[in-house]
Every structure is written in C-alpha cells, then in structure tokens.
Amino acid sequence: MSSFGEGILMTPLQLGALVSTVANGGTLYYLQYPRTVEDLEEFEPRVKRTLDIQPLLPDLREGMHAAVLRGTARRSNMPDSEDASGKTGSCSDAGSRLGWFASYVDQPRLKIVLVVLMRGNTFAVRGPMAAGIAGRIYHQLEDREYVTQPQANPIVASVAASNSQ
Question: What domain count does the chain have?
C-alpha cells in the first residue's frame, strides 16, 4: 500500500515539533531558535499545549518503529537495538518532487528528533531516500558518541559539535 500526496502545508520544523510530541508523550512545545550563546544558556522550553494522545501512542510508536525496521524507512539502516522510529512521505509541490522523513530516537535521558526534506525533479527524491540521509546523520551522531552520551544541554552540545567541523 502506498500513496503519493500533492503539496505541503507545514515546514520541517513544524513536522519536527509534531514528531517530538509523539516522542515525549503528548507535549507540544513552541518552536524557538536560540541565536546566540546567551540565548542557548538561558534557553527554557515553552509548552504550547498538551495533547490527549496517550491511548494512540502505543500503536503509533509501534508503526513508526516498524517503518524503520522493515518498512519504507528501512533505508535508514538503523540497528534493531536502537529505539528509532520514523515516517516517510513523498509528494509533489509546484512541479518538483518532495521526499520527507520525520523520525526520533528515544533513549531514557536523550531524545533526538530529525526531519529530512528533499526536493528535486528525479524519481530518487522520495521518502525512502530521505530516510537514508537521516540514517547517515544518526550514524555520524553515534560515531561521535552523541547518541549514547546524554548531554547536560543537548542544544548547546549540538551547536558546539557543528561549529567544530
């Protein structure tokens, strides 16, 4: 079973916020983008609303996890031992193709949400390819021990890691 949608109605950051709501059990946060070191040090998450999705989470999480292990997102090549979950999507918008992959890795003290959006005019631009890109990012984070070593402030740590390259 598959489908192919037309157009997009949300940004990758909005989709990331929605996926984080699934990952954290129902809390939707305001999107914030700290721009300075001071902003990062003073960062406080702001709750937008709490969604009553508890009864839906077990099935939703199981489906997203199965997509990564043996479904359309298996190209991410995440090991069975990782608690990685995601959803692929493909559509067209204004004459070009879009490939989406929205995902999260859930560990006891660290949650990572990642959204990959591809745009182009070839058949290669689709959700499973976006999952492959996300998989490479997750593997690089694991190689740098970011995934296995919880940080005191993951936002600061991720900015520091990207600035060191």
Answer: 1
